[in-house]
Design goal:
By secondary structure, the chain is α+β, with helices and mostly antiparallel strands. The protein has three helices and four strands. α2 packs antiparallel against α3. The model has no long low-confidence stretch (mean pLDDT about 95).
Length: about 120
């Protein structure tokens, strides 16, 4: 197998890392329902802007409360042709009341050359 040197060309593989904040855990059930609806809408808008969902992972099977060993428990993997889509995702979350309940970071990389997906 030949190792191809990294290139910074689209599509970009973007890992969105999220975690619930103290506000999430303190919120009553009706507020949580509303927050989840808003978060779902945000993910839908992100896809409508061109983000292609590769996969997602919710690390909540063996943990409760805010994540500590790893600072995130929600992982969403996208392929995007324009990194501006992810900038919009972060800005939209930061500009909304969702920041009371969630925090977000993103990492940009590429598909691991050893795997197909």
């Amino acid at each position: 197998m030949e190792y191809a040197p990294p290139a910074f060309d689209p599509p970009y593989r973007v890992l969105v890392l999220m975690a619930s904040t103290d506000g999430w855990y303190a919120a009553p059930p009706d507020v949580r329902e509303g927050a989840l609806a808003q978060l779902s809408d945000l993910f839908e808008r992100t896809e409508s802007r061109g983000a292609r969902l590769v996969g997602s992972f919710d690390d909540d099977l063996f943990a409760t409360g805010q994540p500590l060993s790893l600072p995130y428990s929600i992982y969403v993997l996208y392929d995007v042709d324009d990194l501006g889509v992810i900038v919009e995702l972060a800005h939209e979350l930061r500009s909304s009341e969702l920041t009371h309940w969630f925090r977000l970071e993103a990492r940009v990389g590429r598909r691991l050359f050893l795997l197909d997906g």
